Amino acid sequence: MPTTPRAKSRRPNRRKEVRAEIRRRTLGPISVVPTLLTLANLMCGFAAIHYASRGDVTTAVFGWNAITVGGCLIFLGMFFDAIDGSVARLTRSTSDLGAQLDSIADVVTFGVAPAFLMLQLVETYYGSGVDADATVVGPGVTSVYGKAVWAIAALFVCGAGLRLARFNAETASHEESDHRFFKGLPTPGAAGAVASLIVLHQHLLYTRFDATESLAFDRIAALTIPVIALLCGIGMVSNLRYPHVVNRYLRGARDFGSMVRIALPLVAAVWFLQETLAAACTLYAVSGPLGLLRRRSDEAVDASPDGEFEMDTDAEEAE
């Protein structure tokens, strides 16, 4: 009686396919220097949150206030964030791992840290005169202002996360040509605007105001800085165009006028560091809306009959 041959089992082939998939997903060698720079950025964000949680106390870091140290650590993280990508491209070691790790670090340093720093500033100074154990900011407090400030901080963090996710999804490659402009306010720019104003607040509080004037100044800062954080959070998820400062202005050869414009803020920072830092970060944050208004104004001029007449006149003169 003839017997039907049994079909060969596909289990060995399936095992080979699984092993091949595991090998494909396994990371290759990781570039050390860019990864360490990105991790340094992440550690700066963690340290900024740590110092901000201590409130208005003097630290061992140059005798500075803990909130001031937290703000400065955000800028130190900004330095590491600015050079890690350049180092990776210089060493030709860009990778998807580095891009994802950079985004995670940016969420902490430029999203969570400035939002928490703003909360601690309001908690410390707006809540002065209230019971030391009472919480004036949070979703469960009775004050409408305290709830609003907490909601602004949460929106800032969410805006930073959405901004970075959109950047990763829309960026075509790791090449410098794809990093000359940003869509939406970059997270370092938003964090710099908030942190620089907080650092300036602390500087003015301890150097320019006496005890009677400081209370009013504290309350004003507690009202204005959350509003600025809200505007920056909206700017991060907007479609406004912002230049990449390093790739746009600091790379390559520049004319004499550009060098003067770059050198003047650096000279001013020697004497007025906190004021210059706050002015530069604020100007960068508002450069997106101002650029949009300028482009629309130019488009309106080009579309006007006078503009068409001038173009026709220029064409006739050229002929």
Explain what you see.
With 319 residues, the chain is mainly α. The chain has one domain (30-302). 73% of the residues lie in helices and 2% in strands. It is built from eleven helices and two strands. A two-stranded antiparallel sheet has the order 1-2.
In short:
The protein is mostly helical and 319 residues long. Helix content is 73%, strand content 2%.
Keywords:
single chain; mainly alpha; two-stranded antiparallel ribbon; globular; 319 residues
Shape: globular
How many domains? The number is 1
Q: Strand share of the residues?
A: under 5%
Q: What's the total helix number? A: 11
Alpha-beta classification? mainly alpha
Low-confidence spans: none
Radius of gyration: 26 Å
Which sequence of SSEs, written as H and E, runs from N to C? HHHHHEHHEHHHH
Give the terminus-to-terminus CA distance: 99 Å
Largest sheet: 2 strands, antiparallel
How much helix, percentage-wise, in residues?
Answer: over 70%
Reading side by side through the largest sheet, how are the strands ordered? Answer: 1-2
Q: Mean of the pLDDT scores?
A: 81
Number of strands: 2
